[in-house]
């Protein structure tokens, strides 16, 4: 059984370097997928209030038979929980749906900078961390400017920024800023939602060379750069192979062939937009 190595966060905690994404699974499918994934060796599960599947994710976690402290569960709170300590009730509701006593990581789902509330929301997250309800706290879909505003305004540094990344959308500026501040970058849609990226001739050629699947090549690209991908699959065979990326390496030439797939610094979903 494969296990992802642990990566150390700036709060001293350690997180498995690859997790299972659960969007857009609904409760029943999420319960099944999470149970299957944990059985295959996954120890890190990614959900969000907005996915509407925390009940199913919690059932999968609790039914897995693996002790809670060996699992990493992330959830995210979206715009309606920003500002005025609204995140307190937000996380209480998530924990009730998950039927868990704490989450390992709580993220601000989108910065929504026009509403001007992400700084106060993150201060509330700090209170939730101090209360032991969220062991680590972070953000999602933050640009380098958003991160700077957050750190300068609150004196708090998030442990994680979860953003859309794949070889065509490398987001180097965000990653560099995060690295300078000891923030770990997680990758959402890490295999490009299973679309054209996995058919790309360059990815296919490297997969052929190494006797691996295109998804494994792309996931290996993430982990080799210290990123933490959360690929979603509801298919146990795909889950198994997506996790099986820790016993081979891409060489410099293969990494630069993948770097050449970049569509430039502005590619990808605009982080001022809401979404999943
Ligand atoms: N923070 C945010 O704003 C945000 C936004 C989007 C997503 N996320 C998180 O990131 C996770 C992953 O992103 P995502 O679901 O958008 O995209 P993804 O993980 O890049 O791709 C998932 C898609 O690829 C397919 N797939 C999985 N493994 C495969 C393989 N080995 N070969 C071919 N196809 C494969 C899946 O289908 P099957 O299930 O049929 O295998 C699914 O359709 C989400 O589930 C969610 O937890 C976060």
Summarize the structure in words.
It is globular, with a radius of gyration of 18 Å. It is of the alpha/beta class and 276 residues long. Helix 5 links the parallel strand 7 and strand 8. Helix 1 runs parallel beside helix 2, helix 2 packs across helix 3 and helix 4 packs across helix 5. It contains 11 helices and 10 strands. It has one domain: TIM Barrel (Alpha-Beta Barrel). NADP nicotinamide-adenine-dinucleotide phosphate binds next to helix 10.
Question: Topology of this protein?
Answer:
Blueprint: E1 6-8, E2 14-16, E3 20-21, H1 27-40, E4 44-46, H2 54-63, E5 72-77, H3 86-98, E6 103-108, H4 118-130, E7 134-140, H5 144-154, E8 160-164, H6 172-180, E9 184-188, H7 196-199, H8 201-210, H9 214-224, E10 228-229, H10 236-243, H11 252-259
Parallel strand pairs: 3-4, 4-5, 5-6, 6-7, 7-8, 8-9, 9-10
Antiparallel strand pairs: 1-2
Helix pairs in contact: 1-2, 2-3, 3-4, 4-5, 8-9
List keywords for this structure.
two-stranded antiparallel sheet; alpha/beta; globular; eight-stranded parallel sheet; TIM Barrel; 276 residues; binds NADP nicotinamide-adenine-dinucleotide phosphate
Q: Provide the β-strand percentage band.
A: 15-25%
Radius of gyration (Å): 18 Å
User: Largest beta sheet: what is the strand line-up?
Assistant: 3-4-5-6-7-8-9-10
Number of helices, where a helix is a run of at least 4 consecutive DSSP H or I residues: 11
- Count up the domains: 1
Biggest sheet layout: 8 strands, parallel
């Amino acid at each position: 059984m494969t296990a992802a190595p642990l990566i150390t966060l700036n709060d001293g905690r350690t997180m498995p370097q690859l997790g299972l994404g659960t969007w857009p699974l609904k409760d029943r499918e999420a319960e099944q997928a999470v149970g299957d994934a944990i059985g295959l060796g996954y120890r890190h599960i990614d959900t969000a209030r907005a996915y509407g599947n925390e009940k199913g994710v919690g059932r999968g976690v609790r039914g897995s038979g693996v002790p809670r402290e060996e699992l990493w569960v992330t959830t995210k709170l979206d715009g309606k929980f920003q500002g005025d300590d609204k995140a307190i009730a937000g996380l209480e509701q998530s924990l009730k749906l998950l039927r868990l006593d704490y989450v390992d990581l709580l993220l601000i789902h989108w910065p929504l900078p026009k509403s001007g509330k992400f700084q106060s929301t993150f201060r509330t997250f700090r209170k939730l961390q101090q209360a032991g309800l969220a062991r680590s706290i972070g953000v999602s879909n933050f640009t380098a400017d958003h991160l700077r505003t957050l750190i300068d305004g609150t004196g708090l540094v998030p442990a994680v920024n979860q953003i859309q990344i794949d070889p065509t959308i490398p987001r180097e500026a965000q990653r560099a800023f995060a690295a300078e501040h000891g923030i770990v970058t997680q990758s959402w849609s890490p295999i490009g939602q299973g679309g054209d990226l996995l058919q790309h001739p360059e990815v296919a050629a490297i997969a052929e060379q190494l006797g691996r699947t295109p998804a494994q090549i792309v996931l290996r690209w993430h982990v080799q750069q210290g990123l933490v991908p959360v690929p979603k699959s509801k298919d146990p065979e795909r889950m198994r192979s997506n996790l099986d990326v820790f016993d081979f390496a891409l060489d410099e030439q293969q990494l630069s062939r993948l770097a050449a797939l970049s569509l430039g610094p502005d590619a990808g979903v605009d982080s001022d937009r809401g979404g999943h």
